[in-house]
Design goal:
With 192 residues, this protein is an all-beta fold. It is built from no helices and 15 strands.
Length: 192
Amino acid sequence: PPVGTRLYVDPPEIIDPTMEPSSTFDINITIDDVIDMRICEFNLTYDTTVLGWFSIDILRVQGQMPRALTDANDEFGYVWIRLTYSTSVTTSDPIALVTIGFHVEAMGVSLLDLHDTELTDSVGQPIPHTAFDGFFATLIQDIAVTSAVPSKNWAYKGELLNINVTAKNLGNMEESFEVKAYYDSAPIGTIP
C-alpha cells in the first residue's frame, strides 16, 4: 500500500456496463495521512465526449467549512478547486474533501485525471504527497475463448486433427479479432 500523504479519487474505478447516457454517479476527492494541511488545490480533468459534471459539493472537514474557489468548465472538461481551511487539517484516516457529480454523456471510457495538486501547511510550505487518478468505463472489452475441443485426443504424424474453438464476445462493444492456433511455439492456423 502507498505510504505518506495521499490525495485521490474515490472510488478509484467505476466500471459498469449498465451506466448508459443520462446515468449519474459521484466521486470524492479524498485526503489521507496528512499533517497540518491548510490549503488543498487540484485540477480534475475528464473526457467530455463521455462525461459531464453537474454538481460540486464542498464538504465539512473536522467541523469546519473551507473557503473554496472553484472553476469548472464542461466544454473543456475540468474542475479546478482550491480549499483554504481556517484551522489546519491533520488526519491518519481518509477524509472526503469534495464530492463531484458526473452524468454519462455517451458509452465509453474516461480517465478522471487528478493533477496540478498542491497541499500547503500552516506556514506556507508544500506538503509532499502523491495524487491518484480515477477511472470510469461503461464499455467493456472482453473477448474470451470459452472452449477448445479436439476431434480426437491423439493423432499420428500427418493425420488430420480438427479443433473446434468457440470464442465469445463477453463485453458490450463490437470487436473484430483473430483466433490463432499454435503447436508449441509454431503457428499452425489463424481464423478471423
